[in-house]
Amino acid sequence: MENDKKNMETTAESVEKEVETTKVEEKTFTRDEVNKMINAEKQKEREAIIREYESKKQEAEKLAKMDEDQKKNYEIEQARQRASKAERELEAYKLKDETIRQANSKGIALELINTIEFERETAESINKKLEIFEKITKTEREKAIIEYSKEPSPKTGDKVDTTPKSGYEKFISNSGI
């Protein structure tokens, strides 16, 4: 019986013990604050499910009111819309794939490519963007090269050459030749 009581420790108590042992320097929340956050997320999820249910219910009511020909036409239109959407998604994937190939060949960073929304772009608009990205990349590389070349050459030290010179070297350095 005592073992059952020990095992029946609530989740909140176990979480509190874990937080105490880890001593995280993050903001701590009270139990009420955590419950409010959880309830808010649950409410959002409920509302999303209710919206989906309502739309499906309206769809079913709409279909129930239609006669056979209207139902067939409606279903055909729905199938066309799904097919059209699938084709657009496929084209977007193909366009992205080709864009990545071109970007790699031109030395364009993939971070720039990830800014493009391929579903809304055409091949021509992407080519224009690739040209802009290529110019930006070249400009940045040139800036880096110029900045690197501006650095002074490394010094070998401030020592003066104290090695003894031969007679000929002394003659040339003294005569100014």
Tell me what the structure shows.
There is one protein chain. By secondary structure, the protein is an all-alpha fold. The protein has helices at 2-7, 11-22, 31-65, 68-106, 110-113, 123-150, 167-175. It has seven helices and no strands. Helix 4 packs parallel to helix 6. The chain is elongated and about 115 Å long. The N and C termini lie far apart (108 Å).
Question: What would you say about this model in short?
Answer:
The chain has 177 residues and is mainly alpha-helical. Helices cover 75% and strands 0% of the residues.
Which keywords apply here?
7 helices; 177 residues; single chain; mainly alpha
Helix and strand string, N-terminal first?
HHHHHHH
What is the rounded distance between the termini? 108 Å
Percentage of residues in DSSP E strands: under 5%
Broad shape: elongated
Structural class: mainly alpha
Total beta-strand segments: 0
Query: What is the gyration radius calculated from CA atoms?
Result: 36 Å
Residue runs with pLDDT of under 50 for 5 or more positions: 1-12
Q: Summarize the biggest pleated sheet.
A: none
Separate helix tally: 7
Q: Mean pLDDT, as a whole number?
A: 79
